[in-house]
Amino acid sequence: MQPRRMILVCQNERAAGKESCRPSGGDALLAAFKLALKERGLKGALRAVGTSCLGQCAGGPHCVVWPEGVWYRGLQAADVAEIVEQHLVGGRPVERLRAPAPPPESLQAE
Ligand code: FES
Predict the structure, then answer these.
(1) What is the CATH number that goes with domain 5-100?
(2) How many whole angstroms separate alpha carbon 31 and alpha carbon 49?
(3) pLDDT tens for residues 22-46?
(4) How far apart are the C-alpha atoms of 19 and 4, rounded to whole Å?
């Protein structure tokens, strides 16, 4: 089954001294999404995928729910259950954790 939606979670690690997603918890966030989707029985329709830099970097980890283009930043593993239930199942993005969609010209990977 092809997934209808994906959660793209940045796994990039920039040079020492530069803020980036993986050292900010991106790896634990991706693992938490994968586990939550599996436990919730959503693995076929939804997929959590690690990506390279999403072009935002500071304030991460950054992730985007695709194809609707809802961005979140600064999520931690403890936020995943709320995102899954309210947004991915319920259809309502979690506004308190949401980030504004970046302008297309800012989506240059570093
Ligand atoms: S390091 Fe994650 S958006 Fe650039």
Answers:
(1) 3.40.30.10
(2) 10
(3) 999 999 999 999 999 999 999 889 9
(4) 31
Residues composing the chain: 110
- Domain residue extents for the chain: 5-100
Mutational test site, ligand 1, from 11, 12, 52, max ligand atoms within 8 Å of CB: 12
Ligand 1 center to 12 CA (angstroms): 6
> Does pTM surpass 0.85?
yes
Q: What is the pLDDT of residue 103?
A: 75
How many angstroms separate the alpha carbon of residue 110 from the centre of ligand 1? 7
Alpha helices by DSSP H, the chain: 26-39, 80-82
Burial class of 22 by CB neighbour count within 10 A (0 to 12, 13 to 18, 19+): buried
What's the CA gap between 71 and 51, in Å, rounded?
14
